[in-house]
């Protein structure tokens, strides 16, 4: 569902991503795991079609992002690491616009269910300008998952989110996998990555240093192995 070969991304003289290979399959969840500055968000932006690759090939849902970006974006849902919300719009207006752009029918029940699951029901008609960081994160996950995409990209979805929001995000990931979607989650939180995902791509300084099953990073032995990859 997502295939990346030799991905490199440069911003001037800075190489933010330096040679990543990735295979992410339907029904699985893959973590992009590493410290801040590891290249996780840049990789996610490339997969979302926001940032073009400098080198390498990227296919999402069967579409080459260099030549068929809009078709790929039609098949994915993306929660960016920052931003993504219109400050003067309410959660309901965000979802209403998303439904119109994607020509969704009978979307209202799905919208209400997601807002309630993420404890945003009470602020359905309040503009997002006054939202806390955690509320904004939760709303971004709602928007990404709303149309049941074939590829779900969640960039730092747990950042600043309370336990109930974490639980709701875990449920969204599980639901997407059960429906056969391919899920990618970027995070610096090892324990949540292990809980949410089946495989993990560990990044350090923009480079790929390991591609392992999530369970290999579990427990004290996994924590030591993870620290050794980052040092």
Automatic annotation (TrEMBL):
GO: which molecular function terms? ATP binding; ATP hydrolysis activity
Q: Which CDD domains match?
A: ABC_DR_subfamily_A
Q: Which SMART domains match?
A: AAA (SM00382)
Q: Name one Pfam family in it.
A: ABC_tran
Give the record's keywords alphabetically: ATP-binding, Nucleotide-binding, Transport
Read off the InterPro entries from this record: AAA+_ATPase, ABC_transporter-like_ATP-bd, P-loop_NTPase
**Domain ABC transporter intervals:** 2-230
Q: Which PANTHER family match?
A: ABC TRANSPORTER, ATP-BINDING PROTEIN
Q: Which family does this protein fall into?
A: Belongs to the ABC transporter superfamily.
Q: What is this protein called?
A: ABC transporter ATP-binding protein
